[in-house]
TrEMBL record:
InterPro entries: EGF (IPR000742), EGF-like_Ca-bd_dom (IPR001881), EGF-type_Asp/Asn_hydroxyl_site (IPR000152), EGF_Ca-bd_CS (IPR018097), NOTCH1_EGF-like (IPR049883), Notch_Cell-Fate_Det (IPR051022). Disulfide bonds join C20-C29, C103-C112, C144-C153. PANTHER family: CRUMBS FAMILY MEMBER, EGF-LIKE DOMAIN-CONTAINING PROTEIN. Keywords: Disulfide bond, EGF-like domain, Membrane, Repeat, Transmembrane, Transmembrane helix. Pfam families: EGF, EGF_CA. SUPFAM superfamilies: EGF/Laminin. Residues 1-30, 32-73, 75-113, 114-154 form the EGF-like domain. This is Crumbs protein. GO terms for molecular function: calcium ion binding.
Length: 228
């Protein structure tokens, strides 16, 4: 009974063995050889092509790679072979595996079919530089200057560096502390002065200048009434 698989031929010699057809290996020819790999276990399809293994053969699916050929090694000139048209008088330029459209001023996008958001007016304020990143949608980025942040460079940054905060707040607190200590010292001196004068007699100006009282100014007692 022939136990060799996949149409292998059994060789009945001193040590019987299976002679495998092309594309198979193993003691009983039970293993399909992966023809997508070369002797160094490297994929035979290049530039990301999908390899499909067969019986003693392989095929490469080069879809969306920008390349063609049996092993996806031939670059496709999209501008010529696919007749890519860049909008608004844009110029199509072939690059390995793809293409780019060099757009006229005022337009952007993969096919130059979008309006450049940075022109004619710069949306970035306070000296910011506008950089468009259009592909299939309008996108731009502001590279802000003069310490501004935000999508359109309209916001001042929040200080997160505690050392910078200390440099700003420290002198203010020191001034307030000195002012508070000065006010407290003045209040203490006023209270001390008030306490020193409390409970003492301070003569009036008239008493100080005329210490003696004139006898004429002293009220005389009324005369005694006669008894009838």
């Amino acid at each position: 009974m022939n136990e060799c698989q996949n149409n292998g031929i059994c060789k009945k010699e001193e040590s019987p063995f299976c002679e495998c057809p092309l594309g198979f290996k193993g003691h009983l020819c039970e293993q399909n050889i992966d023809d997508c790999l070369d002797n160094g276990n490297q994929q035979k399809c290049q530039h990301g092509g999908q390899c499909i293994d067969g019986i003693n053969e392989f095929t490469c699916n080069c879809t969306d790679t920008g390349y063609t050929g049996d092993d996806c090694s031939i670059d496709i000139d999209e501008c010529f072979d696919l007749n890519i048209q860049c909008g608004h008088r844009g110029e199509c330029k072939n690059i390995p595996g793809s293409f780019i459209c060099k757009c006229e001023k005022g337009y952007c996008g993969h096919l130059c079919d979008l309006n450049n958001p940075c022109l004619p007016e710069n949306p970035c304020n306070n000296g910011g530089f506008c950089q468009e990143h259009c592909t299939d949608v309008i996108v731009y980025e502001c590279q802000c200057a003069n310490g501004y942040v935000g999508q359109n460079c309209t916001e001042l940054p929040i200080i997160h560096n505690y050392a910078d905060i200390a440099l700003i707040v420290g002198p203010i607190l020191l001034i307030l502390l000195i002012g508070g200590m000065g006010s407290l010292l003045v209040l203490l001196m006023m209270a001390r002065k008030k306490r020193a004068t409390r409970g003492t007699y301070s003569p009036s100006c008239q008493e100080y200048c005329n210490p003696r009282v004139e006898l004429d100014n002293v009220l005389k007692p009324p005369p005694e009434e006669r008894l009838i």
